[in-house]
Design a protein that fits this description.
Length: 453
């Protein structure tokens, strides 16, 4: 069987990680264009209510996507571990189990997303002025959930082998398709928000087909053979072991974001649109975090499978330092250029004011958020998925919700929304630093570090 040419267990660590992370970074940039282009075109061709309808649904869609992505991450970790240990039969079983699991989640997510959207939006306190549009947008979006689920599962399999360039090509193609369809449906055919959702669904179908076809043509142990797609109990157990904590972490964080969105909704349409636009901008700022997190999880998983703990330690240092430094630079840019950046989404002065104020408050704390995300990915790659789940659930969920629904009821001010994120990013970063110190992760003594993890 053909050997992998993208393994990260040999060669220069920085080159391997950058070579893997940079295509992912570019890919996530184009993926981020999906919803951002929706917001740009909706905000400029329709109206503020339409923009609020599209941007305020992010926490709900991220909740659904995050759950599935957690299991995709778990599948990627165990597949990367088998590849690093050179266990082709175990790799094949894990790959086909991941595909079968993705098919199951596709059915469940489509049904749940379409049927439960109206009551969920009511629970979030979505204003009547945007309720119908938000509902239509989400129901069209979830009608294509299978494409999104299977794409994420397929990409996790490819990336587990160290392959990150082909998913980039697929995302470029689908993102450009999304832009063209957005303009066609909204600007030319004069469709409402469902036109933006339909453009996204069709683009995701294209990316799923491209990546799926690649896996069908592979000649190594990650090749997908339809006749072998079934659940292997041992592989499923490991995928659930690594994926469930990650999925629950993402779900509870997104659930808390839905509660926070309900607090934001109480300030009206302009606050919803402004803070939503700020979060879209923030999504671009955090693309390096996503890229290095994925690279670090795969790098650590492969090298732990190969028993190369010295490379684990060196790769961890490099990934954490890179994300911290990059987001410090991006945060500085956002602080000084926030109004100009937000103007791309909407020219309403009130919306820009809400958005720019939140961005300038959070900007210099982006580096701490990035550190926490990358530290979480590192812990998962080291086989400790419960640690980041507990840290993030306490710091990013419980603390935020408690603050907003206790202090926020006494002091009903928008600035509390601006500051709750930087505060909890700082808190989680401190906890991770203490955890790394306890684990002797960056000890000068390799034996001490190996025994700790």
């Amino acid at each position: 069987m053909k050997q992998y040419n993208t393994l990260m267990t040999e060669g220069n660590i920085r080159r391997k990680m950058l070579g893997f992370a940079l295509p992912i970074l570019a890919g996530y940039f184009f993926q981020q264009l999906y919803n951002t282009v929706d917001a740009l075109i909706v905000g400029n061709y329709l109206d503020a209510d339409a923009l609020a309808a599209v941007t305020s649904t992010g926490s709900y869609t991220y909740l659904m996507i995050g759950f599935v992505s957690g299991f995709a991450t778990g599948a990627g970790i165990i597949i990367a571990r088998h590849i690093g240990a050179n266990h082709p039969e175990a790799t094949e079983k894990a790959v086909h189990t991941a595909v079968a699991l993705g098919a199951l989640f596709s059915i469940l997510m489509t049904a749940f997303g379409i049927l439960v959207t109206p009551p969920i939006l009511r629970l979030m306190g979505t204003p009547d002025t945007v309720f119908d549009r938000s509902c239509r947008y989400l129901q069209v979006y979830f009608s294509g959930a299978a494409a999104l689920v299977m794409y994420n599962m397929f990409v996790s399999i490819l990336q587990a082998s160290g392959e990150s360039r082909f998913p980039l090509i697929c995302l470029v193609a689908s993102s450009l398709t999304n832009i063209v369809l957005d303009i066609l449906f909204i600007a030319v055919f004069h469709m409402d928000v469902e036109g933006a959702a339909l453009a996204t669904v069709l683009s995701e179908i294209l990316s799923m087909v491209l990546v799926g076809a690649k896996l069908l043509r592979r000649r190594d142990s990650i090749r997908v053979q339809p006749s072998r797609i079934r659940m292997d109990h041992e592989s499923l157990r490991y995928i659930v072991r690594y994926g469930f904590p990650t999925a629950m972490q993402g779900c509870v964080i997104d659930l808390s974001n839905m509660l926070i969105q309900s607090y934001i909704n109480s300030f009206g349409r302009n606050a919803m649109a402004g803070i939503g636009a700020s979060m879209k901008l923030e999504g671009f700022m955090f693309l390096p975090v996503t890229a290095f997190s994925m690279a670090l999880t795969t790098f650590v998983s492969q090298n732990r499978g190969a028993g190369k703990q010295d490379r684990v330690q060196a790769g961890a240092k490099f990934g954490l330092r890179c994300t911290f430094a990059i987001l410090l630079i991006f945060g500085s840019m956002a602080y000084f250029l926030a109004p100009q950046m937000i103007h791309l989404f909407n020219s309403d002065p009130e919306i820009i004011r809400y958005s720019a104020r939140r961005t300038t408050v959070c900007a210099f704390f982006y580096c701490l958020c990035g550190f926490s995300h990358t530290a979480s990915a590192l812990m998962r790659g080291m086989g400790k998925p419960m640690t980041p789940m507990v840290v993030m659930l306490v710091c990013w969920c419980a603390v935020r919700v408690i603050l907003l629904f206790t202090v926020g009821r006494i002091i009903h001010e928008i600035w509390l929304i601006y500051w709750v994120y930087p505060f909890t990013w700082s808190l989680s970063s401190l906890v991770y630093l203490l955890e790394f110190r306890k684990m002797h992760l960056f000890s000068r003594n390799p034996t001490q570090q190996v025994n700790a993890v």
